[in-house]
Amino acid sequence: xxxxxxxxxxxxxxxxxxxxxxxxxxxxxLRQAVEADIVSAVLSSGVKGTNCPIRPGSTNQSIGNQVExxxxxxxxxxxxxxxxxxxSGAGYPDKTLTERSTRLKMPLEVKATSAWNPSDSNRRVLTxxxxxxxxxxxxxxxxxxxxxxxxxxxxxxxxxxxxxxFLEPTTTVSVRLEASVNHKILSNGPHHKKVI
Length: 196
Prior knowledge:
By secondary structure, the protein is an alpha+beta fold.
């Protein structure tokens, strides 16, 4: 199975970019500091057990997005060593985790799920392009995946737990080569087309 470092090296080659480190091993003191700050924020915010209101008619993806936004807004009010902020632009990561004292910026990806199952093999896409990482982060780059576990009802989602995964260069990943088209490509493409 490929790991995250190999994936990024292959991705950079595929994109025709110089191979540079896009993932580094977490130093234990930094990992412990992040964990302690987020544990403290979870406890002081009281987010666990709270109910995130859900807009009527929301899809599963929309519910996940609402839960993510709700949880991060509560947590970021209670972190003291690190700040959680937006990461502009499309793609990975959603957010930036910044150490206040050093201004070290780290990719923070936020996911939400109502059914954590350690045997579940459904994909959780992290990244498909290196452009955002290359443009907004400098080595060393430490990746954090924050997953909100919740229980949904028709009107709200109860926040059950916050899971932190400190991704390493050796973290196993599933890689799928994908191709996509859009209306512009289809409209201008050299292939035969007919509208009926």
